[in-house]
Write a structure and sequence with these properties.
The chain contains 10 helices and 20 strands. By secondary structure, it is of the alpha/beta class. The strands form 4 sheets. It has an 11-stranded mixed sheet with strand order 4-3-5-6-7-8-9-13-12-11-10, sandwiched between helices. The radius of gyration is 22 Å and the shape is globular. The two termini are 35 Å apart.
């Protein structure tokens, strides 16, 4: 992985194709779920020779994997008692449980370490990571070989410039979160985009200039330009975004030079699929990804439910990685208009222009039923009648005719499990979920 940062693009593609052929053969021979999936659609391992051939395999969804017998998702011969378990936050419904071998977990950590180094993380940096603290998962004591791999992993990560992490509980009151960050005296602050923006707004309103890290690293949620601006101003530091998920690990990291997202091409194959095939540069579509290093529980042509914009085939900064120019959001972020079409969350934000409505501190959009959108709001200052009228008028423009809109002033909005903020929540069945 360290060599790949300096390799020619051709070498990256050769590596991808070599790993892909091995992965497909492994999944067909040893993973019942994929054997059935390939057989159902007439796919044989020799049909998939390069990344371009992946389009022959129909995508797999989380719902399909959740419905499957758990034993069919694992490669035959895998000792599940020695696997590392990870769980998604469950924001889209039932939480998803993912298992990796210690070696796969180590590779994931090494990849993140490389990406952090690319962002400019230094050996002596102190990283304050704002996240929800979870309950440990019960598992058998690690075997000696597992402890050895874990020890090796810690040394490798130290060698790749990931040094000291201080975890700050995002579930604390925001004032205590800020105090905890101050006590850590970090050179880098990291966390979910929504949590960082929430902390940034509190810092701005309290005129607290005591936090000055060298950079802020965002992830797990869509980072809007307004949120980026708020975070950068509050912390007095540049903000760099990352993209990933529990199932596949780190997928992409923002380039410091171009602002596009470097895809981790030597770890995951990312496809963008539109309604009429694969879109070109600058066009958006659904994100479908294949993990090149997940063998105990493979993810092949896994549909993430995200919408992204395809970037350049190779970043202009000189690194040999392809790019995504924008992560537009989750498919479930889209609302259904009165005529059945999709309303993008970005269209709503652009029309409403939240930054112009200075009285709003936190908010959420919810489409509970077809034909109606609710907006709970935590105000920074009590709004006037004119301000509420202005908000209603902007929302009517954004939603179009046929949709009712209601604002509701509330005292607080709860973070979702895992610490994320589901800013756009639709419970209406449609093709966009």
């Amino acid at each position: 992985m360290r060599r790949h940062s300096k390799a020619a693009r051709r070498k990256i593609e050769e590596f991808q194709n070599h790993r892909l052929r091995r992965l497909i053969a492994h999944a067909y021979e040893r993973v019942p779920f994929y054997r059935d999936h390939f057989d159902t659609h007439g796919i044989r391992p020799d049909h998939i020779r390069t990344a371009a051939d992946l389009a022959r395999i129909p995508p797999v969804t989380k719902a399909e994997m959740l419905r499957a017998d758990l034993s069919t998702l694992f490669a035959r011969g895998t000792d599940r008692t020695r696997l590392k378990e990870r769980r998604t936050s469950g924001m889209t419904g039932e939480p998803f449980r993912i298992w990796r071998t210690p070696r796969e977990e180590l590779l994931s950590g090494i990849l993140i370490a490389r990406e952090m180094r690319t962002l400019g993380v230094r050996p002596r940096d102190v990283i304050a990571q704002i996240k929800m603290t979870g309950v440990p998962i019960d598992r058998p004591p690690p075997a000696p070989a597992e402890r050895l791999i874990a020890s090796l992993g810690r040394r490798v990560l130290r060698g790749h410039r990931v040094e000291r992490h201080v975890k700050v509980n995002a579930g604390l009151p925001v004032e205590e979160v800020i105090d905890a960050i101050k006590m850590a005296r970090p050179t880098i602050v990291a966390g979910y985009a929504g949590v960082l923006a929430h902390v940034a707004r509190k810092i701005a309103t309290s005129c607290d200039a005591g936090l000055r890290p060298r950079m802020v690293i965002s992830g797990a949620e869509v980072l809007t330009e307004r949120m980026r601006e708020q975070i950068a101003n509050a912390f007095g530091a540049p903000v760099y975004d990352t993209y990933g998920c529990h199932e596949l690990g780190r997928i992409a990291t923002e380039c410091r030079e171009t602002g596009e997202m470097h895809v981790c091409d030597d770890s995951v194959l990312v496809e963008i699929e539109g309604e009429n095939g694969r879109p070109g540069e600058g066009e958006s579509g659904s994100v479908i990804a294949t993990s090149l290093h997940s063998w105990a529980m493979p993810f092949i042509r896994y549909q993430l439910g995200d919408v992204a914009v395809r970037g350049r085939a190779q970043c202009e900064c000189g690194l040999p990685f392809s790019t995504l120019s924008e992560i537009s959001g989750r498919k479930y972020d889209y609302f259904r208009a009165a005529d059945g079409s999709a309303i993008s969350p970005h269209l709503i934000l652009d029309t409403v222009q939240m930054d112009a409505l200075g009285w709003i501190e936190r908010y959420q959009f919810i489409q509970e039923v077809s034909g109606r959108v609710l907006m709970p709001i935590v105000p920074a200052t009590p709004p006037s009648d004119d301000q509420l009228t202005e908000l209603d008028a902007r929302m009517r423009t954004a939603l179009g005719p046929g949709l009712e809109f209601e604002h509701r002033i509330v005292d607080t909005l709860e973070f979702q499990p895992g610490g994320k903020t589901r800013r756009f929540k639709s419970e209406v069945e449609s093709d966009y979920h």
